């Protein structure tokens, strides 16, 4: 498992280096490097790459099939009821370190200004797929909720469970406010299918598949991950030692 993840990382690091080489030719970038004495080149690249956009693709590049992984259908009575109601009563609660806690009906969320992006999903299990996502920037929601200056992480609480544990994930504020970080409610021009996280899932395009939380019910802003479930920031992080930051 770990070696596959390293393999994926090695496969994409070439692209990042190529991007840096291109930037290196511009005067601005040299200026930035000169002004950052004390920072190693590696750290500089790291900072640059955290803000950079993930590659976006053309419609012609989309995978004919976007498979599902992990939970395909949350097995709770509550989810079955929502599915039966076509998610008409699904709400996304936004709470924790915010000045204005929100409870947003899914229909309301679908009416907000959205972003569309065609990106590649990479799962540590060794498969990738290019899909089209449509959703609200997470930044819009965090802005509406008036995120506290104490908040450092955003936690996504999901509707599905593995055994006795709830699936959850978390990201830091760099990723939370990244322009490609969206709460997606449609995929490949259709409302999100159940196997892919209906009615709402996260797309955090600079990270691996397991960070892309499906079946989102609650978004919580916290100062520390220590008190959240197993304390390591995600289901796989808690149970299988996966890295919390799964950058690609
Ligand atoms: N709630 C929830 N989110 C989840 C999972 C899951 O089992 N439950 N699996 C993760 C993994 S490992 C991957 S690769 C992707 C799969 O997304 P997909 O089913 O749309 O392909 O969702 C991620 N998010
Ligand atoms: Mo995955």
Automatic annotation (TrEMBL):
It comes from the Bacteria. Residues 87-223 form the Oxidoreductase molybdopterin-binding domain. It holds the Pfam family Oxidored_molyb. This is Molybdopterin-dependent oxidoreductase. It comes from Sphingomonas sediminicola.
